[in-house]
Write a structure and sequence with these properties.
Layout: E1 4-13, E2 16-26, E3 31-35, H1 42-50, E4 57-62, E5 65-66, E6 77-80, H2 92-102, H3 107-120, H4 136-148, E7 154-158, H5 166-183, E8 186-191, H6 194-200, E9 203-208, E10 211-216, H7 218-223, H8 228-233, E11 240-246, E12 252-255, E13 260-263, E14 275-280, E15 285-288, E16 296-305, E17 310-316, E18 319-325, E19 336-341, E20 347-350
Helix pairs in contact: 2-3, 2-4
Length: about 350
């Protein structure tokens, strides 16, 4: 049983409130990602689940047990750290078997479990090496192996890929995902990288200033963010935000800074004259000729291509806007065009509260 539940968890360091009334339910076998900017409280929350930090208020439950006052060693969890945290004087085998030896398990059982996990992680040829003889990716696999041999109820990952280069990060990310599918152990994963969150998480918890901003599946957060903060934090390239107001007859959206009007998305009522923020993902923008009705005038600032993806950065009266496409572009800086957005893909947020206005 590895379900994790937090009920009204708070954490203060002196007069500073770091975690503020956080409640989260993580189902058994679920892969949950905690994401947020630096200082949002995600690592502190993970340490509270692990028992490495006490909570000032609230309760922590693991597998249906109230573990709020239990020490870390009593919680049946295993943690994988950003810094690997391997014992430098121990071989790979000794590092992986350390917790089992500490628990005085039979030698044959220890050997069998370590060999099985080493095979799973492709570490068989490295068992007699010291950590200093391994690459960063290999060290991280050893740290994961050390956690797996314990067969814990919950895996906790604290930004485990941040010390790896881009290629290794992608490789180890896939290995962690494959391991979760194979083991089906409840996992809580902390990262500030929204690509990791979107590609690994079954559930994502977005944190902001110690509070839960939104909880949902990756695509729910992408398609239906509850706030301007979530819309801007999830997605790469970043979402475009445009100041606008609804016309008095509620038929068009007026964008004064770009001196243009746009079609009003369907499904919104009682919006007459309301000031809004429009959120448009870069893939839902299209280029057209300058002066085309219902488009925002723009000047091409730069074109960035990764080979498979192209991002066009445009200057408009409403600020910089990004357009992304799978097609390669022959555009050059300085070209003047119009930006059209797909009305059915426009997200609308209230200017005052920055909360999304849901269509009926």
């Amino acid at each position: 049983m590895g379900a994790v539940s937090l009920h009204g968890v708070c954490k203060s360091f002196g007069a500073v409130n770091v975690i503020k009334d956080v409640s989260i339910d993580i189902a058994e076998g679920e892969f949950c990602v905690l994401i947020g900017p630096s200082g949002s409280g995600k690592s502190t929350l993970l340490r509270i689940i692990a028992g490495l930090e006490d909570c000032t208020a609230g309760e922590v439950h693991i597998g249906g047990r109230d573990v709020t006052d239990m020490q870390a060693k009593e919680r049946n969890i295993a943690m994988v750290f950003q810094s690997y945290a391997l014992y430098p004087q121990m071989t790979v085998r000794e590092n992986m078997s350390f917790s089992l030896r500490l628990a005085r398990r039979p030698k044959e059982e220890i050997r069998r479990k370590v060999d099985a996990v080493a095979q799973m992680l492709e570490l068989e040829t490295l068992l007699d090496r010291l950590p200093k003889e391994l690459s960063g990716g290999q060290r991280q696999r050893v740290a994961m192996g050390r956690a797996i041999v314990r067969n814990p109820a919950v895996f906790l990952f604290d930004e485990p890929l941040s010390n790896l280069d881009a290629k290794l990060r992608s490789q180890v990310r896939g290995e962690i995902r494959d391991l979760h599918q194979r083991l089906a152990t409840t996992s809580v994963y902390v990262t500030h990288d929204q690509v990791e969150a979107m590609t690994m998480g079954q559930k994502i918890v977005v944190l902001r200033d110690g509070r839960v901003e939104q909880v949902g599946s990756p695509l729910t957060l992408y398609d239906s963010p509850d706030s301007v903060f979530v819309a801007g934090f999830i997605g790469s390239p970043a979402i475009n935000m445009i100041k606008a107001s609804v016309s008095d007859d509620a038929r068009t959206l007026l964008v004064p800074e770009s001196q243009t009007s746009l079609a009003m998305p369907e499904g919104f009522a009682d919006m007459n004259g309301r000031k809004v923020l429009l959120g448009v993902r870069p893939e839902f923008l299209e280029l057209s000729e300058l002066g085309t009705p219902g488009t925002i005038p723009c000047v091409v600032n730069a074109v960035e291509s990764t080979g498979s993806d192209t991002t066009v950065i445009c200057d408009t009266g409403s600020g910089k806007m990004l357009l992304s496409s799978k097609q390669r572009s022959q555009l050059r800086p300085g070209e003047r065009l119009g930006l059209a957005m797909r009305p059915e893909k426009v997200l609308m947020f209230d200017t005052a509260t920055e909360r999304r206005i849901a269509a009926r």
